[in-house]
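Recap from last week: sequence in, structure out.
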Amino acid sequence: MLETLHDSVIAPARARLGALGLGTGLLAALALSLGVAAAVAVTLHAYLLGLALFALGRAAALIGYTPALSTFDLAAYGALAFGFALAEPDRALASSFAMFGFVILAVSRLAFARNRPPLPRTSLIASAIAFVALALACVRPDYFSLVAYAGGLACFLLAGVLAASAVVRT
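Predicted structure tokens:
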């Protein structure tokens, strides 16, 4: 299924953008820039604009994805969560929990894929968890704290699954 998505959507888009001179590095930088712009929009209480910018950034990140540039994903997710904390400081603890979950998940992806290629589904699942949590928060900002705690917990659980799969694969 992932190969079908890659072959039918991502690879052609990457080829077209590459023909225009937009390489994977530039797409990753664009994705990060859009993520930061989304955080600024959320800070200014423009939640739906933040969601639109964030979704565009995630699309650019998906098309321009390389394992070496996946750290930009963490920065984009963290920036949006930080934007919620700046928008309403009483949400700072929930935002911190979500950001910590993103960090733990990113570190576990890097640590357990050191000598082996990462499991492709885990990268997709990790990105989906973070995107859905932050998209829900943009649509219903009054539920940000609940969504942040649930998303952070999901990140911790997936990090545990990655650790367990690394132990089983060795």
